[in-house]
Amino acid sequence: MKRSTSFVIILLLAQSIACLTQTLQDASALIEASISSADLNAKDALYYTFHEDDSNIVPDILGTPPMPKLPGTQWMIPVFTVNSEYRWSIQLDVLFIEGIPYRRLIGINNQKLPPELMTFESQKYDRAVATIHTLSPQQRQQRLVSPEDRPSLYIDPKQFRSFYSCKATGHEKVDKRSSTIVRCKPLNKLQESNTAQASGEVTLWVDEQRPFFHRMRLVLDHTLGQYGRGTTFTDTWSLIDGVWHETSAELDWVGAATFSKNIETPAPTPGFANNVEQTNRGKEIITFSNFKKFRTESRILNP
């Protein structure tokens, strides 16, 4: 089984809108204020580098270990087992080259890279700097929406305006900050409009002091690429140094395809089939930390 080791959930940001002056009491007002805040916050967040740890856990259902590769390469990642689960992880430093996020690999399974991979990563970075320097504004925007070598699920908050029915249902604390819980159910016209995007029931935790999507949880309602119905994504942002930063993203994925597995039984049972249908499952947990503000984005390397 081959799976990518990384995924990206990208919060597509709306254009700036006028600040709401009315008291934020209903779900639509909370969402509008959060979209506006997210758009402004995105510019400030681009001035911070950070560390990323991407961990994967896959139960041993198939009986054969997964064969993960580093995104965009043929380098195999060593897999180890813990309590009948396959595990692996990669560590990256995320920096920005002329406003474009770049993930530089620094470790595998919390171990330093071998010399040949360090050389490969250094050369890859030099090529990225030169390439990004030549991008058009349109190409830069595309890179922000869909980073290279990283499959993406898309959640566009603007969809909550027209394609979801949203209702504030209560209050809860996230990171010790009070949040209003907003539950959104997709309308039929969302599926009719585009099945290539992520959709399903969404729960939002909107910060009450500074309106923002503090946490967002999506339960996928249809198969999308390698992910099956029931896949759950939870994204958490935290306020650090006055700026909202993504601090964790958890993907509890359900495989899009089922497979047959022979289950041995002590004795034949009339009417009982030994072959059962099963679905591959797993979890990917990405944590972000060590946020540092920088002044210079990058140094252009001349050939």
How would you describe this protein?
With 303 residues, the chain is an alpha+beta fold. It has one domain (8-293). The protein is 19% helix and 44% strand. The protein is built from five helices and 14 strands. The protein has helices at 27-45, 115-133, 137-145, 159-162, 188-193; strands at 8-11, 48-59, 80-82, 85-97, 100-108, 111-112, 152-155, 164-174, 177-186, 200-207, 213-220, 232-240, 243-262, 275-293. Strands 2, 3, 4, 5, 6, 8, 9, 10, 11, 12, 13 and 14 form a twelve-stranded antiparallel beta sheet that branches. A two-stranded parallel ribbon has the order 1-7. The protein is globular, with a radius of gyration of 22 Å. Mean pLDDT is 81; it is low at 4-24 and 297-303.
The helix-strand sequence is: EHEEEEEHHEHEEHEEEEE
Low-confidence stretches: 4-24, 297-303
- Rounded mean pLDDT score: 81
Main β sheet profile: 12 strands, antiparallel
**Span from first to last CA?**
40 Å
Overall 3D shape: globular
What structural category arises from helix and sheet content?
Answer: alpha+beta
Total helices: the number is: 5
- Share of helix among residues? 10-25%
